[in-house]
């Protein structure tokens, strides 16, 4: 019997395209055909104007760091084995704000506005500093 894991997505019919794209190294966002704004995480309605005219779009993968926190303790498996890690909120170039992790960066090098680029860890989108 394997221990429960809290880090793996459980795709439903609606979010499956998002996770399938992530498994292929692509980050998808949702774009509203009514007001033109993008959002993330994926929702079936536009959170800005409530239109249902929302479609998938591939994001550029560019973002800047908004805020972050170095996590030293997390009792939910498997995170306990991964501490410390950097939990972060980033602003995607397309506008949406996204909860994620920052990898490949020493904590002292993190700063608000740091340019980031998406990468994928176990088919999940995370971000690393842009070269
Ligand atoms: Zn809208």
Short key terms for the protein model shown above:
131 residues, mainly beta, 5-stranded antiparallel β-sheet, 3-stranded antiparallel β-sheet, binds zinc ion, DNA-binding protein, DNA binding, DNA-binding, ChsH2_Znr, NA-bd_OB-fold
Overview of this protein structure:
One of its GO terms (molecular function) is DNA binding. InterPro entries: ChsH2_C, ChsH2_Znr, NA-bd_OB-fold, Thioester_dehydratase-like. Residues 56-120 form the ChsH2 C-terminal OB-fold domain. By secondary structure, the chain is mainly β. The protein has one domain (16-129). It contains one helix and eight strands; from the N terminus they run αββββββββ. Strand 5 (85-92) and strand 6 (97-102) form a beta hairpin. The longest helix is centred in the N-terminal third of the chain and has 8 residues, at 16-23. The radius of gyration is 16 Å and the shape is globular. It starts with 15 loop residues before the first helix and ends with a strand. The relative contact order is 0.19. The site of zinc ion has 8 residues, from loops.
